[in-house]
Q: What sequence folds into this?
């Protein structure tokens, strides 16, 4: 944890004895009681072997799933027990996602895909377009803004996905293997982009197998068999 | 900190739905096919029913529904009608022709014959009918040769006769320019016309028809059954039947009985209602199939789009937003199917009418209703897929 990021500030993420159990059969404990905080502006990498619970952790942090036990404070608000509707609201306004498989809508243009990030915020079409074009410029895709996403390279697709995530100005950016489907060159471009966003003050959590990505993060968490630890230190 | 709500307006919902439909146009068209057929069948059914109703109307009105008969309610062998039947009834609205007619009682004394009779006149039982010119015209006759007698002949009790086609054959009559005579009880009547056809009262074709005034002067009429035949304008038969007895016998209208055809409107509505109900049932079946087709295709679509739905949930869509979008997509497919179905239905009606020489009659409101039916059908079809889509767990669909 970076203590300096916590000074005089509420942590973006504060998790208290959170756990996730999937009902069976067989019953699977995907995440054992874990407690940790992520301060505003941190860049955290979560590593671990396949099936260790990384994606489950990301789903819980991203409010895509509810914990079985424990509390989760997002920007100081306990969101573990929120209704589905309120969790959707929190996702729409506070959390950005970047996925390994990009999850773009191929038959739509770059601008339209980035605009999707603002679709559920109640913003006018004109404003959505203005913001989308601005962010597309930041990720270096202005020349491709009118092109269909299905015609982009993998690296470009991931940059569009990042643009879609950050256009909503989230408090927390969650990335699930953002370089998992990319070649080295594209991975470097994406990594540099994430570092730029972090430098701009964005809180970034990256789940990765890539040691280069993990090394570029300021803080590393490791998860194994549902147990979360920090740089070898057990967190519970 | 408070939670800001997720918002997804109707305008965005429709835009996103249209975009999703445009993504798979061929699938959307195939999905719409069932509803298209259903709506098309509906419009065609209504249109054909309306068009056919107009045709049924014209045919009923032209023949059956324009005929009224007034009979003696208490026949005693005497004439219950006044002599000026035609003049009295012509004063009523909607009556074209009217007149008395009766068949002369024949105990074998009439023995109609001509000099050219092919059959033994003693065995020939050709009936002799006394008919006023109005009754003759009310039978809607077509003259083969010669002419009909008229009020002049009636007024002067002229001995003239019209012979029906079949009777003319028996009497050996083929022409009238030589002023042939037919002898009735040895009284000579000049044949001035031969009937080729009558559209009502076909017994005239088998008979010799003479003026009522001549018949009552020359022959015994006791025991004859008198009636009045009336030809009305379309739609006037019911009124004529109600008014005629009082016009003819204001002193004793109960003496007369009007025989009017069934109200053509009721008959027409009954017939067309039966046909329409049958076709509407078939349309409903087609719509049901269309609904199931849309539901099935939308469900497959939802399964195909699990990733996109998960993404939308991750971006902040509520379950209701997802459900609404899927429902609107299905409803829009239904609207497109409704518009196309209405077009197909109208084309069918126009084509059918053209081949039958009918005038196409379709209420514009029925055409406008087609897209609405499509919309409702699509929306209903989209409900189950919408619920399924809204329950898609986002975490599962976004892995990998």
A:
């Amino acid at each position: 944890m970076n203590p300096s990021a916590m000074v005089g500030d509420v942590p973006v993420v504060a998790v208290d004895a959170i756990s996730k159990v999937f009902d069976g059969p067989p019953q699977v404990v995907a995440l054992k009681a874990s407690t940790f905080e992520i301060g505003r502006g941190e860049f955290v990498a979560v590593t671990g072997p396949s099936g260790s619970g990384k994606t489950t952790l990301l789903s819980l942090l991203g409010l895509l799933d509810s914990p079985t036990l424990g509390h989760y404070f997002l920007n100081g608000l306990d969101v573990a027990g929120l209704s589905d509707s309120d969790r959707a609201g929190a996702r729409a306004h506070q959390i950005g996602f970047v996925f390994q498989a990009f999850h773009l809508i191929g038959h739509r243009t770059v601008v339209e895909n980035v605009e999707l990030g603002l679709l559920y915020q109640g913003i006018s079409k004109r404003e959505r377009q203005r913001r989308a074009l601005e962010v597309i410029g930041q990720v270096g895709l202005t020349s491709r803004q009118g092109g269909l996403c299905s015609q982009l390279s993998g690296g470009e697709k991931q940059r569009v996905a990042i643009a879609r995530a950050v256009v909503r100005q989230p408090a927390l950016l969650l990335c699930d293997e953002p370089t998992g489907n990319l070649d080295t060159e594209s991975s470097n471009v994406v990594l540099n982009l994430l570092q730029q966003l972090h430098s701009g003050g964005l809180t970034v959590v990256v789940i990765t197998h890539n040691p280069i990505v993990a090394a570029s993060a300021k803080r590393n968490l490791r998860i194994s068999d549902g147990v979360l630890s920090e740089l070898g230190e057990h967190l519970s | 900190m408070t939670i800001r709500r997720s918002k997804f307006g109707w305008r965005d919902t429709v835009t996103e739905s249209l975009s999703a439909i445009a993504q798979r146009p061929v699938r959307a068209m195939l999905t719409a096919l069932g509803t298209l057929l259903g709506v098309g069948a509906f419009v065609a059914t209504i249109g054909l029913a309306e068009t056919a109703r107009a045709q049924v109307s014209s045919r009923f009105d032209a023949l059956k529904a324009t005929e009224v008969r007034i009979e003696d309610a208490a026949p005693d062998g005497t004439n219950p009608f006044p002599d000026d039947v035609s003049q009295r009834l012509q004063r009523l609205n909607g009556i074209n022709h009217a007149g008395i007619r009766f068949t002369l009682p024949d105990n074998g004394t009439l023995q109609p014959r001509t000099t050219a009779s092919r059959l033994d006149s003693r065995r020939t039982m050709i009936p002799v009918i006394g008919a006023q010119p109005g009754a003759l015209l009310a039978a809607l006759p077509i003259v083969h040769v010669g002419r009909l007698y008229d009020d002049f002949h009636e007024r002067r009790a002229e001995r003239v006769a019209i012979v029906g086609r079949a009777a003319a054959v028996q009497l050996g009559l083929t022409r009238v320019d030589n002023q042939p005579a037919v002898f009735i009880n040895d009284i000579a009547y000049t044949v001035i016309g031969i009937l080729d056809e009558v559209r009502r009262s076909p017994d005239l074709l088998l008979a010799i028809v003479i003026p009522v005034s001549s018949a009552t002067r020359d022959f015994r009429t006791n025991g004859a059954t008198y009636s009045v035949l009336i030809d009305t304008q379309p739609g006037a038969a019911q009124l004529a039947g109600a008014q005629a007895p009082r016009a003819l016998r204001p002193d004793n209208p109960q003496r007369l009985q009007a025989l009017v055809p069934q109200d053509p409107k009721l008959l027409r509505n009954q017939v067309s209602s039966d046909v329409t109900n049958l076709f509407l049932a078939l349309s409903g079946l087609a719509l049901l199939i269309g609904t199931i087709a849309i539901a099935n295709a939308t469900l497959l679509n939802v399964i195909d789009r699990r990733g996109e739905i998960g993404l939308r949930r991750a971006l902040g869509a509520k379950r209701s937003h997802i459900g609404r979008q899927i429902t609107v997509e299905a409803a829009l497919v239904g609207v497109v199917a409704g518009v196309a179905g209405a077009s197909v239905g109208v084309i069918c009606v126009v084509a059918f009418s053209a081949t039958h020489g009918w005038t196409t009659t379709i209420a514009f409101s029925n055409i406008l209703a087609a897209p609405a039916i499509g919309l409702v059908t699509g929306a209903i079809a989209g409900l189950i897929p919408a619920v399924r889509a809204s329950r898609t767990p986002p975490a599962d669909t976004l892995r990998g």
User: Anything to note?
Assistant: Residues 10-60+266-397 of chain B form one domain. Residues 8 and 321 of chain B are 7 Å apart (CA to CA). The mean pLDDT of chain B is 86.
